[in-house]
Structure formats: structure tokens, C-alpha cells
Amino acid sequence: MSKWSRDNLQGLTFEYSDLSYTIPRGNVEVLHSMSGIIQQETLHAIMGASGAGKCKFSPVFGGITANLSSYMKSSDILKTTSRKNYIGYVAQNDALLPELTVRETMMHSACVRLPRLLSDAQRSRHVDRIIRCLGWEHVQHNIIGDFESHGLSGGEYKRASIGVELAAAPLALFLDEPTSGLDSTSALTLIRLLRKLTRAGMTIVVILHQPRKEIFNCLDSLTLLHQGRQMYQGSRDNVRSHFERLGHDFAGASNTADLILDIISSEQKTLTSTNEEAKGEESTNDEFRATSRWTRCNNDVSNSGTKFLPLCRASWITQFWLCLVRSLKQQQRRASSFYLEIGVGGIAGLIIGLSLYSYKGQHMQGIYLSPFERLSSSANPNTPAMIGLMVCMAIGLAASPSGVKTFGEENILQCKEASSGHSQSAYYLGKVVSTFPRLAISALHFTSFYTILATPRMTYWENFSIIVLYFYTIYGLASCCSFIVSRQDGPLMAVILCLIVSVLGGYGPSLYVVKQWHLEWLWRMFPGTWASEAYVDRTFRRSAYLYNINGAAQATGFSLGRYHLDISMILFWGRSIES
């Protein structure tokens, strides 16, 4: 068992040589033969014009991007497959759950990503230290919010994203344009905070587009890129003298960063790829090969607090429970959406019940049993199948938008957490299980209104079983749509797909006709057919004392005596989608 103390790692030094990266699609090389060093406990900037390859730099070093065309080896401490355990990454458009508070969001990250041998009290104390470092004692219990609700400001949102990564106690932190969208004062405050963190022992790399003078002066070192090629790599103090030696005049320049970016963008043909810090060292340092070496620092930095090395994350069960609790908390704070969903479910059941009210519970009209066949008139055994179609379509319209919302608004967050080492299956299952109470209550309201008004010839719980399982199936189908199409198109796509699945239920065309086409196997692949058969089975069997149900079943094409198989197949269909 590992021992966690202040003697653990306090920073990382990145050394790389002949490093390239090629985008698999199109075989486009966006980083070309880069070499250099990023010292531990420094604030390092990646700068360049748009299209220079800056945004590919951080994912490569953070272990998020794996398609390297040269070597990125690590020491025994940092294996290539576990870089995400040691390095934090904050994307430009980072995603946080708007329903949670700042502290709840940070605690979730700490509980998942810190070593499992730590106690809850230790994790809480670690998060408290991060909050104090960020100066956030007064906003730690504020709801994060989003563009539709009042929450954190742009600068506070950026800090929250950084806090989530710091809660995992990384050894290095990469940030993709953290100052974008911020005013000049907020941007400078954020960069000064990052510089303060480096003095506490972290290695921080930021991508900057066009920093102001005060921000540029906060940097320790930088890498200049143009069209994927490294134009300079070294100390910020030496960059001006380097370009002056190349014949460029800095006299009268108010912002060194602006002039440097102009130079590498307009006169790149006169520049050569330069590494000021590594120049002259390759001949004397045998360890500086065409690999990436990650070294560790054992310095005990004062006032930095306990440094945890995240070797062993929370177990799958713990991650599942944390995701489940988090999702339930989201629903609790989104009460209006919850009540609306229940209301829609109840209204859908009310409408279907009213449409069948005139039947007075007579949902089957068949041929009377012998010897009363001649008394039969206007036999219509297809009514139960029609009811199955109406119920399935109503559930599809009521539940599909809510199912899309379960995952549709969190795709970016889910990808971010997966790249940080969170279990995708634990997250997904936690979200699915959290919807059970919601869909069960919606199904309960639907069933109650429908049963009272339509008075079907089946027990309440038989009816509820069909409806709640079909709700579950629609939720799963709609959630799949949220992964396939955009957030804006998800609800419409889900409604259309759910209607198609419901229509293929054996009413129009009837399953009898479908059998003549030898396509029953295709209809059986959709849950609407099994749901309709369950309604047919319960309705027919409860009318067996009066009608010839075998003849009616043959006329409709459905099979009788398979109610439990029918609801099992609906459940199987839903489980298959969820898996």
C-alpha cells in the first residue's frame, strides 16, 4: 500500500524531441518535429496565430491524443496509459453541471480521482485548501448556473473549471485559451492565479492567443508555433534578444508579444526552429533522445499542503454511486422540469383515456361462442392492437424529449470526464438508474388517467407493467439519439424515431398481413409489436367466456398466452438500447 505524504511528487518536467502529430482523417500533420523542455514549477505558454497548431499541443502532452507519429515515452512513474491520472486538462469550452454548486462539483472530482485509500475527511480538507487558494470561500456554495439562469460569471466559471482539475491533485495542468471570453482584468487575475499555483509546486501550460503586456510578463517560458512548426522554445526573458539577433527591431514596441506574433506570422521563411534552453545540450546529455521524458521533483514546497499522487482512483461501484447521487441532485434542483414531465405523462394518459371513454370498456368485438355465432355483428378484433398503437405513440411523444435531455446536455462533460479517467459505464449507468423514479412516476400518472377513463379489461398493475417498461424503452432510445445528433436536433429526431417504432406495432398494417409478407421477424424487432401483443393477450383472454378468441387471434396475427414473454421482450429491448 502506498504512503501519501508531503514527500510525493510536486511537479513535472517535460522533455521532448522530434515530436510530431498527424490527424488520422486526411493524414494531415499538424505538429512537425518539435523539440524542447518545459521545466517543473513554471508557467509555460504556447503561442501562435490561428491555425498554428496550438490546440493540438496540450492534448498530446496530456495523454488525451494518442495518434503520435513519434515516440512519447515516460518513466516508470508515468506510464503512457495513465498520463490522465497525473495531468489536468481544462478545455476552452469546458462543461460543468449548472445545477451543482462549486464545492459539490469539486468534491465529485476529488472523490472520483483521488486515491481510494483516502478518507472522506481528507478529501474534504483537500478541496477546502483548493477553495482557499482560489479565494472562493464566499462563492463555494453558489450554483454554477448556465446562460439561461443566473450563476457564475465568465471569470468565475473559468476558475471553477480549474478548481475541478486541481481537486484531482494533478502534477501538471494544461489549459486551452483560459483567457478567451474574459475582460482584460479578469484575464490578468486568472493568469496571476496560475502563476501562484506554479510557485506552490505545479507545472502549468497555457495556450494563449494574443496576451496583453502584463499577462506576457507573468510567463516563465514559452513556445512559439507557426503552421505546426516550432519557431522558438525557451525562457520568456530571452525571446526578445533571440529575435533581435535575427535582425528584428523591438524599439518602441509597447507589447513584445504582439510584435513577436507579427514576426512569426509574416516572416516565417526567415526563421528557423529554435530551442534556446536545449541548444548545446544535446551533445552532452545522452538522455535527451527522440522520446518524451517525464521527470519528478521531490522538493517539499512550503505552504503547498499535502500532495496526493493519484495512482488509484475510486472503484467502479463508488463512481457509480457518486454519479447516481449527482444526477438525483440535478433532478431535485430542476423541479420545474420534473413536474412538467409528470404533467405531460398524465395529460397523455388523459387524452388516450378520453378517446376510449365511449367504448365503455368494450375493447373487443368478436364472434360469439357456439351456438351463438349468428348473433355476432360488426366483429372488430383489432381494437386492442389499435389501443396498443395509441398508447405507444402517446408514450413516445411524452417521454422522448425528456429522454434526450438525460444525456443530450452533458455530452461535452461526459467526454471530458472520460478523458480524465472517469468510468464511462459507471457514469452512464448512474444516469440511467437516476431516471427510474422519474419515469416510474410519469408512468404511474399515465396509467391512472388511462385506467380510470378507458376501463381496460386488464388489471391496473398489468397495464402499469406494460406502460412503465415502454417508458423505459423510449428513454433509452431517446438517449441514444442525443449521442448521434446535435443537441438542437435531438428532441425532433427522438420523437420521429419513437413514432416509427410505435407504428411498427402490428395494427396498420396488421400483423396478419405482415405474416403474409414473411416479414414478421422485422416487426418483432420493435418493442411496439410486443406491447400491442400484451394488450391483445390480456383483452382477449378476459373475453374468452364470450368470444372465440382463438379465431380472433388468428385474424389479427398475434399470439395468445405470451403476456410475460411480451413484457420481458420490452424489457430486453430497453436493456439492449441502454447497453
Automatic annotation (TrEMBL):
InterPro entries: ABC2_TM, ABC_transporter-like_ATP-bd, ABCG_transporters, P-loop_NTPase. It holds the Pfam family ABC_tran. The keyword Transmembrane applies. Keywords: Membrane, Transmembrane, Transmembrane helix, Transport. GO terms for cellular component: membrane. The chain crosses the membrane at residues 338-359, 379-399, 467-486, 492-514. It is found in: Membrane. This is Putative ABC transporter. It comes from Aaosphaeria arxii CBS 175.79. It is a multi-pass membrane protein. GO terms for molecular function: ABC-type transporter activity; ATP binding; ATP hydrolysis activity. The keyword Transport applies. Residues 14-252 form the ABC transporter domain. Its main location: membrane.
